[in-house]
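Sample intake sheet
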Amino acid sequence: MAQYGFGSGSMWATTTAGTTNTPARFGALQEASLDFSANVKELYGTYQLPLAVARGTIKVQGKAKYAQIQGRMFNDIYFGATMASGEINTSVDEAGTIPTTPYQVTVANSATWTVDLGVKYTSGTAAQIGTSLVRVASAPATGQYSVTAGVYTFAAADTGLGVAICYNYTTAAVGDVVTMSNQLLGTTPVFTAVLSQVFVTKQITWSMTQCTSSKLSFPTKLEDFAYLELDFSCYCNQANVLGTISVAETS
């Protein structure tokens, strides 16, 4: 029976930076590709067709589109930076009502509050509702606010008005944080890649010994999942081996 391919298959990447490295799977893989492109030179004489054709350099490029988000994979295959446990979360439009003196709203995650992302009115006059307030250093007037360590201070004239507050805060229980630092030129995270596809019990497996990523995309879209895209190049290891191709069909 002839061998065919169907579906996106499965794909893994393993960093080569250490001696014991955990493989990372491209979860919910949508599509993947390996493209081999060679430069070809033709030798011509006095006739229209070439006398000889020779192949020069070969470029091997890969692409993967997947949906499962993993911090370790970001770090292993692209950034090669520092990773720590925990999360940086965002509270979007947390509701609050400006009280009487001292006219302060303490957000729910004030203990680990890190970054202010703005405030808008949710009640008041028609002109106020939905309008963003202006941040000031201190002593806010109406339409303004100041913030310190997750405590938001407003103007006395805004007492009783509703607000929606956005901010970042940290949690230590779960997650990963990758710090994207400015590294020296030439810093290149290297990983091995395995792409496997099975159809009617017959399998094809591509194993690439050394890869490095040139592009990582994280696009979002209304009413759709986020599909990450990774572009990478493949090259030979120290033994001058690019990789292997394994198929079930006997030649």
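Comment: The chain has a mean pLDDT of 95. The chain has two domains: 10-81+180-247, 91-173.
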